[in-house]
Amino acid sequence: MGVRRVDEPIGGARELQDGPWVLDRFEGGFAVLEHAVSKAHADVPRDGLPEGAREGDVLTASGGRLTLDAAETRDRAERIRKKFEGLLE
Questions:
Q1: Which residues make Cβ contacts (< 8 Å) with residue 61, sequence separation at least 6?
Q2: Which of 10, 12, 16, 72 is most exposed by smallest CB count within 10 Å?
Q3: How many domains does the chain have?
Q4: What DSSP element (H or E) covers 66?
């Protein structure tokens, strides 16, 4: 999978903070990302995402580029599943 350049988010010239981002949802032609640590939000054009990125995926930002972190996406999904199961007990 190739790495694509991330375009400027809506509403300002700020760059994406380095680190893990979760693809929260799609709104029109944009993806809404949430930083996994700071909880900051950013809107990124869909064509600025790695190919195949879906809601719930973990993306790593570094130097203005996003890459899909498949291992962290799987780990996150498993942690969420276990928490949900704990609520049902």
A1: 6, 16, 17, 18, 19, 20, 21
A2: 12
A3: 1
A4: strand 65-68
